[in-house]
Amino acid sequence: MKRLKHIFSDQRYIYWLFVFLAILPNIFMFFTESTSMLTRIVQIVLPLGFFAFAFTLAKKPGKPFWCLFWFMFVGAFQIVLLWLYGESPIAVDMFLNVLTTNPGEATELLSNLLVAVIFVVLLYGFGIVMSIVSWRSKNTLSDRFCRRQRIWSLPVLALGAILMIINVFGDRGFKAQDDVFPINGTYNVGIAINRFAKQRNYEYTSQNFTYQATNLRQDSVPEIYVLVIGETSRADNWSLYGYNRNTNPGTSKLNNLMVYSDAITMSNTTHKSVPMLMSCAGSEQYDSLYYRKGIITAYKEAGYQTAFYSNQRRNHSFIDAFGSEAHEVKFLKDKVSFAGNIYDDELIDCVKQRLDNYNGGKLFIVVHMYGSHFNYKDRYPKNDAVFKPDNVISAEKVYRKELINAYDNSIVNTDRVLSSIIRMVDANGVNSAVVFTSDHGEDIFDDNRSRFLHASPLPTYYQLRVPLLVWTSQVFANNYPDAVAQLKAHKAIPVSTNMVVFHTLLDMSGIYSPYKKDALSLSNKGFTPQKRLYINDHNEMLPLDSCGLKQLDIDQFRSHKLQFP
Ligand SMILES: [Zn+2]
């Protein structure tokens, strides 16, 4: 007991504890990152030298602990994310996700991260306690101890700097702000704050934007177009895409439904993918979003009545802004508490009410589902479960069977909502079309990487491949046989959903805008296949073969006969 007390009050032990805590994420990342060996060595040597030196700058290491607290905080965050995703530094999107997510969603995720969160809270909480002990203790580090630590730490710091300079010239992909923790984590926080501020300014930076959209068809022609945006729905679990379970009992019975077999998303995050689906940003620069309005505005300019129905919470992102452009806006979750749950089935009622009041004219509706977002078993009424057991006790690999059952039940629910909307639209007997895609897919412990969820810093095949469906009414098919012939002709062409949805919808609706590109419209004979791109964490558009996909992902592309560069 006395010995233990001695250890706790000895500033030398506290010094080593703090150095250990500061570089613990770097030790983990030495093993998790797939960067070059030299990069990983730099990532250990440089911070080790820095922190070992920095903690000698006061006789009581508890003082520099608080000066360097930011690095402890970001280190704890990093460890949790490594536990979740198995690799990669904290991304800009993760901070934005924290800012744009809602308490209900955050607690769903938190329960999944419980082990990692408890680990870092105990470890770094202990660090905080010891910093207070250090500060209040009468003991101090001796001059001799500080001198000895500086004698080795300064050369180590210099060695780290030299190795980093060598790496800058030797490895062209290396950047300290990308590859050295905690420089990258800190840099990304800066970008996240900047983006959040730009987002807040969006109302002003976009206020004068116009699509200059006009309708090329007669005002008297009644038309209904619907864009349904799914959530976390991956094509591999749709029977329309060859899944061996019947998860599409509704849509599989529809006529005039085109299934695009090789469609992938350009982002694995909701807050990026959905705004691209609701605008032309996916075919331009992602950052053009800050100065543009959404597709609803284009339809309004072309004389359409518009509606936006969402079963997601407002999250202060472009989704809210683009949705709010509509004449009629309903965020279903506004009416329930943060813990409250609403099934997507209520979206059917929204569309039904709108269509009950439809008496000709031009109508455009955007529906944003909550689809298959974790926790899957909360996405459908309990009695509607088709695949059982679906009661997931914990989001772990051992419960994969239950997770997949629940996930597939959520796909069945999405299928019911989508097919119901299509039937209701069809019943009006006018020119109409419904376009469906999901914002991104999901990892569900699919291979030996044991990956789970989406929005990881580097994507996987499972997060990228999504369903893309276009349904047209028979009236539309009769009036625009050329458009339908083109839609059919492009079913197997590799596409990025975020690039084509905007242009295809405007094209099918006969809307002209200088922003509309025929080459990106699946219904246009000028359609030209494009190189597929992925928006990385720094909003750069990267080719598929350099966005961090691994061999296991490429194998999936190949085995599903999908194009991979
Ligand atoms: Zn999403």
Descriptive account of the structure:
By secondary structure, the chain is α/β, with parallel strands linked by helices. The chain has two domains: 197 residues, no CATH class; 349 residues, Alkaline Phosphatase, subunit A (3-Layer(aba) Sandwich), CATH 3.40.720. The protein is 47% helix and 10% strand. The chain contains 22 helices and 15 strands. It has a seven-stranded mixed β-sheet with strand order 3-11-8-2-7-5-6, with helices on both faces. Strands 1-13 form a two-stranded antiparallel ribbon. It has a two-stranded parallel sheet with strand order 4-12. A hairpin with a 7-residue loop joins strand 9 and strand 10. The longest helix is centred in the first third of the chain and has 28 residues. The radius of gyration is 27 Å and the shape is elongated. It starts with a helix and ends in a 6-residue tail after the last helix. It binds zinc ion.
The CATH homologous superfamily of the largest domain is called Alkaline Phosphatase, subunit A
- Principal-axis shape equals elongated
Distance between the termini: 64 Å
CATH architecture term of the largest domain: 3-Layer(aba) Sandwich
Notable traits:
565 residues; alpha/beta; Alkaline Phosphatase, subunit A; seven-stranded mixed sheet; two-stranded antiparallel sheet; 10% strand; binds zinc ion
Give a short overview:
This protein is an alpha/beta fold.
Topology (SSEs and partners):
Elements: H1 2-9, H2 11-32, H3 37-54, H4 62-67, H5 69-85, H6 92-100, H7 103-112, H8 114-136, H9 143-170, H10 176-179, H11 183-200, H12 202-205, E1 214-215, E2 223-230, E3 257-259, E4 263-264, H13 270-277, H14 295-301, E5 305-310, H15 318-323, E6 328-331, H16 345-356, E7 362-368, H17 400-426, E8 431-438, E9 443-444, E10 452-453, H18 461-464, E11 468-472, H19 474-479, H20 481-489, E12 495-496, H21 497-508, E13 511-512, E14 533-535, E15 541-543, H22 551-559
Parallel strand pairs: 2-7, 2-8, 4-12, 5-6, 5-7
Antiparallel strand pairs: 1-13, 3-11, 8-11, 9-10, 14-15
Bound molecules: zinc ion.
